[in-house]
Structure formats: C-alpha cells, structure tokens
Amino acid sequence: MIIIICIISVLPWIGLGDFSTKGEPREASVAISMLESGNWILPQVYANEFAYKPPMAHWLMAAFSYPQGYVSEFTSRLPSTIAFICLMGCTLMFFGRRIKFQQAFIATLLLLTCIEMHRAAMTTRVDMLLTTFIVIGLYQLFRWEDRLELKGLPVIIPVLLGCAVLTKGPVGVILPLFVFGAYLLMLRKYSLLTIFKALLYIGVSSLFLPLLWYIAAWKQGGDKFLDVVLAENFGRFFHLNTPDINYDLGHENGVWYNFMTLAAGFIPWTIFFFFSLFGLNWQRKKGSFKQVLKDSWNNILSMEKEKLFSLVALVCIIFFYSIPSSKRSVYLMPAYPFIAIFLAQYAIYITEYRTKVTRIFAAFLASVTTVVLIAIGLTMIGVIDPVAIASQYTSRTSTLAQVEAVSNIFSFSYGLTVCIVIVVLVALLTVLYQMFKKINIKILYATIALSFTINLLIDGVIMRGIRQDGSARPFAEKVMKEYPLNENNMFVMNNLKKYRNLYGLNFYLGNRFHNFEQEMPEEGFFFATSSDLEVVLKNYEGQYTFNILTSSERIITKCAARLSCVASSV
User: Fold this and answer.
1) pLDDT tens per residue across span 194-248
2) For 324, which of 147, 270, 474, 536 is 20 to 30 Å away at the CA?
3) DSSP symbols for 442-477
4) CB half-sphere exposure, 100, CA atoms < 13 A
C-alpha cells in the first residue's frame, strides 16, 4: 500500500513542468554531457566547467535517459523519485517489524506527506538519493549490531555507504559512522577498541569503490579537481576560505536555521503539533535540577533499542549539520525518518487522549482547503481574477506573472486539473464526514489523506503553472529558430562571484555554452542577464562590439531579469 501511495504521490507529476530553478538543470546537464561525450568520470558541463559532485545521481539520470536518447525532466527527476519510494518502503519494513505497526505506518505517512521529503522526491538533485543511501545504511548498521553483535560485516553496508559517498562525497560515510559510533557508546555493551575496529572496518570497506572514482577523476581534473573537492567537503565544514574556486560556497546560516527548517519541512504536521501544545497538561517534575537530568538520562538509556537508535540518529544528524557554516534544509533529511517515529507516537497519543486537538486541526485544514477550492471554482467560471487581486498587494512583476500562470491553468479547466480538484473535494468531504463520528484515529487518517490530495493539487496544477512561467525553454526555442547557433558559437560568463549562471538556458540549448573569459572568441553569440550585460559592456569596452539581438519577453525564474542574446565580435 505504501509503495502504491508513493507512486501516485510523485511518479505521475515529475514530468510536468520545465526546469525553473538553477539547481535542477545544472545537475541534468551533467547527464547530457555523459551521454554525448562518453565521459562518465568527470564530464564537462556549464561553460567548460567539470562536474564538482560525485557522479552516482548523474549516472542514474544518464542510464534512465539512455533508452530515449536524451535527458528530459522526467528521466532526470526519476532517481530522486525511486529513491523516495525505496526509502518509504524500507522505513515501514524496518520499524514495522520492531515497534507497533500502526505507529510505523503513521510515521511513514507523515514522512510521505511532509513538504521537505515530498519536494526532494520530485527534484533533480542529489539530496534525496543521498538521504536514501544514508538512512537505509543506518538501518543495516542497526541490524548488524542487533543480530550479529558486530561479528563479520554484511556486504550490503559498505555498498550502501559507498554509494552515498559516490552521491555527495565523504559525508556519505562520515555521518553514518558518527551516528553508529554514538549509538554503540550509548549501548554500553562494547569496549572502545571493539567500537573503533567496527567503525574502521566500515569506513575502509565503504571507501574502496569511491576511491576508484576519485583517483580516475583526479587524473582527469588534476589540481583544480582537488581544490573543488577540498572546498566542497572540508571548506564548508570547517569554515575555511576557498580562494582557489570561482564561486562562493553559499548558504551560510546560524544554528537556529536548522530548527526553523525542520519546523518548515514537516508542514503541515508542524501545525498539528503546535495545536497540541495547548491541549497538554504541563507538570513540573519534582526534585532538583540535577536529579531531573539524571532521571531523564536513565530513561533514555532504558529506551527500547529501536527508539534509542532513532533518538541518537536524529540528535547526531542535527548536531553534525550545525557545525558547518553552510546550512540548507535538505541537509537534515536523513534525520526525518527518525523524527517521524517520535512524531507518530505523539500523534497517536494526542488522538487517543487529547481528542479535541485532532478535531481542531482537521477543522483548520478542512477550512483552508475549502477556501482554496472555492477560489479555484470561482476562477474556473471567471467570477474572480486572481491577478487583479494579487496586484492590490504586490507590484512585483515576477510574482504577478506566476499568479497569472497558475490562474490560466484553472481558467482553461484542463481535464487533469478538474480530476485533481474532484479528488481533493472527495478527501475534504471524507474529513468532514469523519468529524461527525467518534473514532478519532479515523479523523487522523482522513486528515493525512487530505494532505496527500493537497500535494497532488500543488504538484499536478499549481507547480506546473509556476514551472512553465519560470522556464527558459521558450527563449531557448526562440533563439535556436531565429539565429544560427551551434555547439561552438554560444558563450557566457562562468564566474559566480561576479555573474549569474544561466543553467536553465544551458540545458534547453543542449549544454553547449562556452566560457567567454577563457576562450575570448573572435565572434559569436553571448548570453547574459540584463544587469550582468551592463557590467560586461563596461569591462570589455574597446575590445569587443556587442549588438543586442533579442531578449526574453518575461522574467525567467532564478535570474530575476530578462535574458539577452547578443552578437559579439572583436
């Protein structure tokens, strides 16, 4: 059932909508280069730049794209989707055999419908694949200790962790070792020497396959490759300066950022648990502060092994990603399955003993959905104009363009849109029906089902409109039709410390951009955003003549400007 729910949740929608972020086309272009050049080790991508992430995700994208002969949005997002489905199935099997099945089942449903995991499952990025390898690897490490007491070493563990390293670098083995080592210490069952040997065996065996790729990539990329590897994997973690690379590592945030993104990532269930705080009876524990800490520590040590492992995992993962200066919400995804176990236990408790909370949250979500469905219905029959309403609150052109794109999808009443709206309506009526009954657990399940259908509405309709509006495809098709572009005459700047990179346009023009500053061509076609073009014209005044040929008719997402195609000559 979980596998089928996962498939319905993500698989039909990953091919809808073009790339409208800079991250997705950047990763997909690596797969294009692999297929066209045959270089599966360190392919050249955007403007003579080599891929600076390990290639596991790109190998899968290229493999899924090979039968059709080209990389599409669907095939490039497919590795993340399959990884998501595998993770959900393995999570249910792992916890369903060790704790109450209902708790494991609800935890999996919470994972499946929360924003962060669902979004990552439909994105051409490496994070969902990395999360799957790390989490399933942790499950296998737990089984190794639980069943074999660290005797031998199941081959599946180094394979999984090795694949994690090949997905995003050494963190794929360092993080699981950190979690597992802390867990073994908490068990107070093994000597320090035994724990050290176990971690050493895992680390060495897991690095064998990745080292083959790193050596082969170093032979191709040389010192530049090593500079990027050191910057990406150690510069981020130890807050080091990285003058040898031409981009900022970015995503610098404080420790508070991790907790804010966790709260945002578990929406809509964060709202449910916020409501529950008002239904709890807060009682201060008796005794001194020292005694309370001692009792709490003893309670933790006496937990069931599965719960203890989950607690150690989530604490270690959050702590680990609090150290580096670079922080992003997706980095914390390996902690989500372990957090979900405790959230599911809490949700069941609230549903059984604080019944009003479940009903209030169901009423809240139903009310919001009702308002949305009414707005959609009025838009479909032309009673309201969302663009006119939005213009009263913002004058930002890109925001109004997105509102118009989404409203157009509802205005034309596509068959898929109508079907999804009907499904959401059925789920809404189910919640309202269950609220008149006395079985609260059914209200919880109905609310989860409503959240599931809301995701369908977002993925199948709303995001489709937003992606189409922010896509570089129309501009790419326009310039390919009107100008004699080929694989040798398209140029851009590739210096993220000074200019913005046009990853989406590069993808839709076939990954054929060249670095203007490196090659200094005699003539050709130059692409830039309007603001960057002003800088280029100033810097190369007297060296080059630039004639503006055309520009995009609308603002392209993540560029925050209109793109220009310029003919340049010495």
Assistant:
1) 999 999 999 999 999 999 999 999 999 888 888 888 888 777 776 666 666 666 6
2) 270
3) HHHHHHHHHHHHHHHHIIIIIHHHHHHHT-SHHHHH
4) 9
Contact 450/438 with Cβ under 8 angstroms?
no
Sheet of 523-529, strands arranged across: 514-515, 490-492, 523-529, 563-569, 545-551
Query: In a 3-state reduction of DSSP, which class is residue 560?
Result: coil
Q: In whole angstroms, how far apart are CA 303 and each of 234, 274, 297, 318?
A: 35, 25, 10, 20
260 Ramachandran zone, left/alpha/beta (phi>0; psi -120 to 50):
alpha
**Three-state DSSP state, 495:** coil
**Ramachandran assignment for 191, one of left (phi > 0), alpha (psi -120 to 50 degrees), beta (any other):** beta
Distance CA 238, CA 486 (A): 43
Q: What is the DSSP string of 496-517?
A: TTTS---HHHHHHTTS--EEHH
Q: Report which DSSP code applies to 563.
A: E
* 565: pLDDT strictly greater than 80: no
Rounded to two decimals, the pTM is 0.93
Give exposure, 397-433, as e/b (b: 16+ Cβ within 10 Å): ebebbbbbbbbebbbeeeeebeebbebbbebbebbee
Q: Do 5 and 113 form a contact (C-beta atoms < 8 A)?
A: no
DSSP label at 544?
B
- 566, containing H or E segment: strand 563-569
Q: Side chain identity at 511, as an amino acid letter?
A: N
**H or E element, residue 62:** helix 56-65
- DSSP assignment string, 269-326: HHHHHHHHGGGS---PPPS-HHHHHHHHHHHHHTS-HHHHHHHHHHHHHHHHTTSSSB
Query: How many whole angstroms separate alpha carbon 151 and alpha carbon 139?
Result: 16
Q: How far is CA 177 from the centre of its chain?
A: 23
Backbone angles phi, psi at 404, to 5 degrees: -65, -40
pLDDT in tens, 159-203: 999 999 999 999 999 999 999 999 999 999 999 999 999 999 999
* Backbone CA torsion sign across 138, 139, 140, 144: positive
Residue 523 phi, psi dihedral angles, 5° rounding: -160, 165
Cα angle 92, 260, 301 (rounded to 5 degrees) comes to: 55
